[in-house]
Amino acid sequence: MKDFSFYAPTEVVFGAKSEEKIAELVRHHGGTKVLVHYGGESARRSGLLDKVCGQLTAAGIEHVLLGGVVPNPRLSKVHEGIDLCRREGIDFIVAVGGGSVIDSAKAIGYGVGYDGDVWDFYLRRTVPQSCMPIGAVLTIPAAGSEMSDSSVITNEDGNIKLGYTSNLCRCKFAVMNPERTYTLPPYQTAAGVTDIIMHTLERYFSKDDDMTLVDSMAEALMRTMKDSVFAVLDNPHDYRNRAQIMWAGSLAHNDITGSRAAGDWATHQLGHELSAMFDATHGASLAAVWASWARYVYKENVSRFVRLAVNVMGVDNDYTSPEATALAGIAAMERFFRAIGMPVSIKELIVRDVTDGEIDEMARKCSCGGTVTKGTFKVLHRDDMVAIYRMAR
Ligand code: NZQ
Ligand code: ZN
Questions:
Q1: What is the pLDDT of residues 21-59, one digit of tens each?
Q2: Ligand 1 pocket test: which of 108, 152, 289 has the largest number of ligand atoms within 8 Å of its C-beta?
Q3: How far, in Å, CA of 248 to CA of 220, rounded?
Q4: Burial letters for 50-85: b for 16+ Cβ neighbours within 10 Å, e otherwise?
Q5: Which SUPFAM superfamilies does UniProt cross-reference here (predicted)?
Q6: What is the pTM of this model?
Q7: CA dihedral defined by 93, 94, 98, 100, rounded to 10 degrees?
Q8: Would you say the ipTM is above 0.90?
Q9: Which of 8, 52, 65, 56 is nearest to 31 (CA)?
């Protein structure tokens, strides 16, 4: 097992009654004037926003609202939030939503105490010295931002989607009520589960070859997701399976099922370019390219793909041909994505053919003009990225 550091400071309050704790948690973590940040209308429609604001009001905690965060959250909304926080003297952010809202809150949190443009951090021009404290009220299990050290923001100027990672932005608390996910549209449920599986796979395809314990945990998580997603697509009010998915979303990205630092992450990088160019749903962008990535890289370590095929996808092990087993596992994952309504090609993702020019542009951006590589399981150069996008087209 490689050396690592594990840090998961977020207080998780999980369950159907968890929302009753919000005001107490804000106060406990020092909040006196709160920005309640949210996305489109889902949190208002469900009554969650009223519940959060009602709790804060009852506890005498002042708050202002800022909604309108869109999936693939935009830098302009972050700037709006920073201005609002400064004007209002905000000292705590409650993010009511999914990865997009939480990530927008994290970026606002970085920006408030910084004189320059918060985008500087995402461009690696400088590092933040502080982040305003944030609490999450999670409504979609997917990105794992409620326990992760990451935020991913899209700059509309040039459609550039970049992540920034630092322990400073980790949520102080995450309130998770599985009932709040009953209203998710099937596509978002499936995209969320895909992202959860992909966060596990990105860590699973690591160069660390001694991960017996975390491999087993990762496999159990993925098998559970494969069962639970069908149960909730069939019955959206299935508390038991909604709960499995919600907790898995956090565990898949808080490093307990493998260290992020040792992982591969090439599929995420390829997917981010698809989201930046076509505003594609994050989980769906990953499903669109994963099998092509897998077929391109599996020879680097066939036995890992065999392990995935047998232990997660339920493929019979063909001892005479590890390659055949590995490829059968990739095909089975592709069938699974299709069965839950995810695209398995770029054409299915964007509902038209992708052009050679668009592929070249995505590979150019992904490799920073050919100056950086992506992935660790197999190191991908710009030409490799073009090849994978072409396989996935
Ligand atoms: O905007 P509203 O109306 O709330 O609708 C949202 C949105 O359209 C809807 N939704 C959320 N909860 C709902 C609901 N609809 C009905 N009922 C509910 N309970 O779902 C849509 C998607 O929401 P979003 O927050 O975008 O989803 P997700 O959590 O998948 O977040 C995706 C973003 O997170 C980033 C992605 O790149 C993407 O920008 N990621 C963040 C990571 C991190 N911070 O650690 C890691 C991930 O790999 C990922 O990159
Ligand atoms: Zn992801």
A1: 999 999 999 999 999 999 999 999 999 999 999 999 999
A2: 152
A3: 10
A4: ebbbebbeeeebebebbbbbebbbbbebbbebbebb
A5: Dehydroquinate synthase-like (SSF56796)
A6: 0.98
A7: -20
A8: yes
A9: 56
